[in-house]
Amino acid sequence: GGMRGMVWEALVVLGWCGAMWYAIGQAFRIRMHAIETFGYVIHEFDPWFNFRATKYLAEHGWGAFFSWFDYMSWYPLGRPVGTTIYPGMQITSVWLWRALNVCRGPLSKVWSLAEKKAITLNEVCCLVPAWFGGTATVALALLTGECSRSYASSAAAALIMAVVPAHLMRSVGGGYDNESVAITAMCLTFLAWCRALRGRPDDAWTLARRDAYVFGLAAGLCYAYMVSVWGGFVFVLNLIVAHAFVLTLLFRYTEKLRVAYSLFFVVGTLGASRVPVVGWRPLKDTEQLPALLAFVGLNLLGFTLRTHFTTRRLLVRALAARAVAALYLAAASAVVVFLLYPRGYFGPISARVRGLFVKHTRTGNPLVDSVAEHQPASTAAYEQYLHHAYRLAPAGLVASALLARPTDARVFLWTYAAVAYYFSSKMARLIILLGPAASALGGVALGLPVDYLVLDALADLGSSFLAARKVPPPGKKKPVAKWRGRLRRAATFWMTWIWSSRLGAVARVAGGAFALRTLVYPKAVEFKDYAY
Question: Residue 158: which residues within 8 A CB-CB, separation 6 or more?
Answer without folding.
Answer: 19, 20, 23, 24, 137, 138, 140, 141, 144, 443
